[in-house]
Amino acid sequence: MLTKRIIPCLDIKDGRTVKGVNFVELRDAGDAVEQGAIYAEQGADELVFLDITATVENRKTLVELVRNVARQINIPFTVGGGISSVQDVSALLNAGADKISINSSAVRRPELVDELALQFGSQCIVVAIDTKDFGDKNVVHTHGGRTPTELITEAWAYEVQERGAGEILLTSMDHDGTKAGFANKLTSKISNKLHIPVIASGGAGNMEDFYDVFTDGAADAALAASIFHFKEIPIPSLKNYLNDKGIPMRLVPSE
Fold first, then answer.
1. Quick check: 145 pLDDT over 50?
2. What is the pLDDT of residues 62-85, one digit of tens each?
3. What is this structure's pTM?
4. CA distances in angstroms from 98 to 26, 46, 64, 75, 76, listed in the order given
5. Which band of pLDDT confidence, cut at 50, 70 and 90, is reported for residue 158?
6. What is the DSSP letter of 123?
7. Is residue 138 predicted with pLDDT exceeding 80?
8. Do 12 and 18 touch, CB atoms closer than 8 A?
9. DSSP state, 254?
10. What superfamily does domain 5-244 belong to in CATH?
11. Higher pLDDT, 51 or 66
């Protein structure tokens, strides 16, 4: 059985890690590169760095930050924010990123997913989907969750898979930062419909939430931010807990 992955997410603004609730009320959470290195040492399986204002402010993700991260850590990491072309992806992968994440640019021009998968391979193309519940449907949002679209989340996830995405990063805006648990029902619906991995994001508050998203939510990986940034749940303790509960984990040997 494949191991499940624990992925700390570092939302970047002006080179610093920030964290908010429901995508707003941001507060500083430390130096991004230093935190990434610490998480790698603690046994994180991967990292995600998202320049959360890159698309809104119409600027590119900081390539220099990627270079610094690549020099400091030895686990795979994904970079997203303001990526809209083959040239952008090439620059980030050459700087040391293992995967790139696109959201707004894929919605604006879905053919970009096909182009990137063809050029670089599906294994390094992650499509991030920020979704919000509107009664009987979940709607895709862009520009850091600021702009609703007409896309239905489940249908969009299937479309980008068919276009060549290698992974889905599914963030529930309703659950983001609330620490009330992941959107397990939606995550399960999408995970069971797709044949590519789904990373669940938004809502982690305790260890049980991770267990629930791997079982009830059928997620392949779970992403969280504030509970790691503010040292509420140590990664080694979380992975030992999940392993003891029967969730296959990559454990770091104790010294």
1. yes
2. 788 889 899 999 999 999 988 999
3. 0.91
4. 27, 10, 15, 9, 6
5. very high
6. G
7. yes
8. yes
9. P
10. Aldolase class I (3.20.20.70)
11. 66
Six-digit token pair at 69?
Answer: 């991260």
Question: Which residue type occupies 219?
Answer: A
| 130 carries an active-site annotation | yes
Encoding tokens for residue 150?
């007409």
| Annotated domain spans of the chain | 5-244
**How many CB atoms lie under 10 A from the CB of residue 25?**
10
Active-site residue flag, 11: yes
124: which residues sit within 8 A by CB, 6+ positions away? 93, 98, 99, 100, 166
Q: From the candidates 51, 130, 209, 212, which is the catalytic residue?
A: 130
pLDDT: which is higher, 102 or 54: 102
Average pLDDT, the chain: 89
Per the structure block, which two tokens stand in for 234?
């140590």
3-state secondary structure of 46: coil
Dist CA 192 CA 188 (whole Å): 6
Q: Which residues contact 184 (CB under 8 A, 6 or more apart)?
A: 200, 212, 213, 216, 217
